[in-house]
Specification:
It is a single chain. By secondary structure, the chain is of the alpha+beta class. It is built from 15 helices and 26 strands. Helices cover 27% and strands 24% of the residues. A hairpin with a 5-residue loop joins strand 14 and strand 15. Helix 12 (264-284) packs antiparallel against helix 13 (290-307).
Length: 658
């Protein structure tokens, strides 16, 4: 089986949300190599022809009931029989009269997601399970709810809560219901349920017409369409779905394993989604080569996920990502960081740079002298402009040291278009220099990258972008290990004068003290959930330094926490949980600014001092940092101060000298 040279998006009878841009890629080459799958008649089939094409029985196996019990705990059978629906943290709501007659216009909490999941029908999952076990009351009530939905929501559904994502989820629920009914009737659909097949085919028409594009939504839609083609015996929809999946794959998971979602959390979701796609493709079209192509991309993605993990066993919280521990993908490189180094084999690289806009680096993967949870790690964002599940976080950094977070990303909140979501996705929610009037960078280029910048334990990167008309930004980042230190130099300009803000987001439960010359020290206590931590606390000193000069500008930074007008100083560990978290803001007015900041995480009580001096030719400036540990109670156990030197050249590039 192959998917041939047909346009994978034709025929389309409605608007497409994202235009298709052809590229000379591996997947496109595979499409050309496969040759034609169907006859000329099938290639030119119209939507109407496809919609009326049926088969007496499914051609191949397709399991449609694998993802329908997501809300089973919150929506037991008893609640469904009473027409009560609950989603997420919102209280249960009576949405019908107890007979399956639902008011589909309800949205009591004025949340788009609440209405979408109501229309998805995924909340009836426990009743589907009960029906599969022979519960006749649950079966009849399910049929009543589905018939009521079809009667109250005539096709087309674009622009309503029934459209787009809800259609995809609902298609899978309908396919699962059909499977349950057929299994209870010797493998065939009961005669009085023929209307269900017609409704499923109408859903396939909608999925054909309103394709979401190359993100995970488009993938899920194509899988649902593939299910229609396989379970109902529709070659047209089976083949169209296969061609779409092949095209999506090359955009969704790049050959290097990175993804287009601009979110580490959704990279993990893509792993699960495309692993499911591999299984479905093997079930539905076992003779195609698509499953093998998916498997190769998943292998590369597992390595990406390993690099994206912090020493705390979570992902760098970039884009729409929750701060939760991730299960181990056994047998892949991700197993090692997910198990805190207890099992698996770590990647060979200490630093990884990905085309989708990520730098992931660390001091190492742990060893006898420094267990993996106590290592340091960092991330840097760049790449294409914001889209899908990404945020306006270009040039932003995150940082972990001594087993604890040092610089965090605020995460993401509920999908509600309000000030909270605008903040979590906007520029001020990230560790970057915010140019006055900026919106989001069109694209950010990684212009320099050097692992081992003058020293084995030093990594250097330079990034450039234009976050608005007449604006320019350059960020140079040098990360040192042994001892841990991050040096960040920002240079930016704009046509109109305004206030530039260099922002540093700190973890919750952080105490902050400000001092002269913008020195900031914060101490983060280990939380009860940090069981893998090997230290009790980390103290981080922020120093705003003179940039290639000995002159220091006295300035006391502003500490912001729990602000609402405008929103600032918050962190979302999960989508529905928000906590106050302090932010250090270093501000300067003008049309241009140069800001150099050192971030030095160390043991509590460590004193950090720095001196700046030019070389003889004055083209390079050398910064000498002295880290003096706290005085030991026993003089025999005292540790000598650590001294490191870094150099900044005239072009802004940085190296470690000592």
């Amino acid at each position: 089986m192959s998917w041939g040279k047909l346009d994978p998006f034709a025929p389309i009878r409605g608007p497409v949300r994202r235009p298709v841009r052809r590229r000379a890629t591996a997947a496109a080459a595979a499409v050309a190599a496969f040759g034609a799958l169907t006859s000329t008649a099938a290639a030119t089939a119209t939507t109407t022809t496809a919609a009326t094409e049926t088969s007496a029985r499914p051609a191949l196996t397709y399991n449609a009931c694998t993802r329908n019990v997501q809300f089973a705990a919150a929506n037991p059978v008893s609640a469904i029989l009473a027409d009560r629906y609950q989603w997420a943290t919102y209280p249960a709501t009576t949405v019908g009269d107890g007979t399956g007659n639902i008011d589909w216009t309800l949205n009591p909490y004025r949340r788009v997601s609440w209405a979408m999941w109501l229309h998805s029908l995924r909340w009836v999952g426990s009743a589907l399970d009960a029906a599969a076990r022979g519960n006749q009351e649950a079966t009849e009530h399910l049929m009543a709810i589905v018939r009521d939905w079809a009667a109250d929501n005539p096709y087309p559904w674009n622009g309503t809560p029934t459209a787009q994502e809800a259609t995809m989820h609902r298609t899978n629920v309908l396919l699962c219901l059909r499977t349950v009914l057929a299994n209870r009737n010797d493998g065939t659909l009961p005669e009085d349920a023929g209307w269900l097949d017609a409704l499923i085919v109408t859903h396939a028409r909608s999925l054909e017409a309103y394709f979401s594009g190359f993100g995970n939504h488009g993938t899920d839609e194509s899988l649902a369409m593939l299910g229609v083609g396989c379970l109902l015996g529709h070659p047209y929809y089976r083949d169209l779905a296969g061609r779409r999946l092949l095209e999506i794959l090359d955009h969704a998971i790049y050959p290097d394993g990175s993804v287009n979602e601009q979110s580490t959390g959704y990279a993990a979701f893509n792993y699960s989604l495309w692993n499911r796609a591999r299984v479905v493709v093997e079930q539905c079209t076992p003779e195609s080569s698509l499953a093998r192509t998916i498997e190769a991309r998943l292998s590369a993605l597992a390595l990406f996920l390993a690099h994206a993990m912090t020493p705390q066993g979570t992902f760098h919280q970039l884009g729409d990502t929750e701060d939760v521990r991730r299960p181990a993908l056994l047998g892949t490189p991700q197993e090692y960081p997910a198990t805190a180094g207890a099992s698996g084999t770590p990647p060979t690289q200490r630093v990884a740079v990905y085309r989708s806009g990520y730098v992931f680096g660390r001091s190492g993967w742990g060893g006898p002298d420094r267990p993996f949870p106590a290592t340091s790690a960092y991330s840097i964002r760049f790449g294409a402009k914001q889209r899908y599940h990404g945020h306006s976080d270009h040039m932003s950094v995150t940082y972990q040291a001594r087993g604890l977070p040092v610089l965090i990303d605020p995460g993401y909140g509920e999908y509600t278009q309000d000030a909270w979501q605008a903040f979590s996705k906007g520029p001020t929610a990230h560790n970057q220099l915010v140019v006055p009037g900026m919106t989001t960078a069109r694209a950010t280029a990684l212009t320099r990258s050097r692992v081992g910048a003058g020293h084995p334990n030093a990594d250097y990167f330079q990034l450039r972008d234009a976050p608005g008309t007449g604006m320019a930004r350059v960020r140079d980042v040098l990360v040192l290990h042994d001892p841990d230190l991050m040096l960040v130099a920002d240079r930016a300009s704009t046509k109109r004068p305004g206030t530039f803000q260099q922002l540093w987001h700190l973890p919750p439960r952080t105490t902050v003290k400000t001092g002269r010359y913008a020195a900031v020290t914060h101490t983060t206590a280990a939380s009860p959930n940090d069981a893998a931590s090997t230290t009790a606390a980390v103290s981080t000193t922020f120093l705003r330094l003179p940039y290639r000069t000995a002159r220091v500008l006295p300035a006391t930074p502003q500490v912001l926490s729990g602000r609402t007008r405008p929103v600032q100083g918050w962190w979302w560990p999960t989508i529905f949980t928000r906590q106050q978290a302090p932010v250090v803001s270093m501000a300067q007015r003008g049309t241009s600014v140069t800001m150099l900041t050192a971030v030095v995480p160390a043991a509590p009580g460590t004193r950090v001092a720095v001196a700046a001096a030019p070389t003889r030719n004055r083209k390079t400036w050398v910064y000498t940092f002295t880290l003096t540990p706290p005085r030991a109670a026993d003089p025999g156990t005292a540790t000598a101060p650590r001294v490191v030197q870094v150099a900044i050249a005239a072009d802004g590039s940085m190296t470690r000298l000592r």
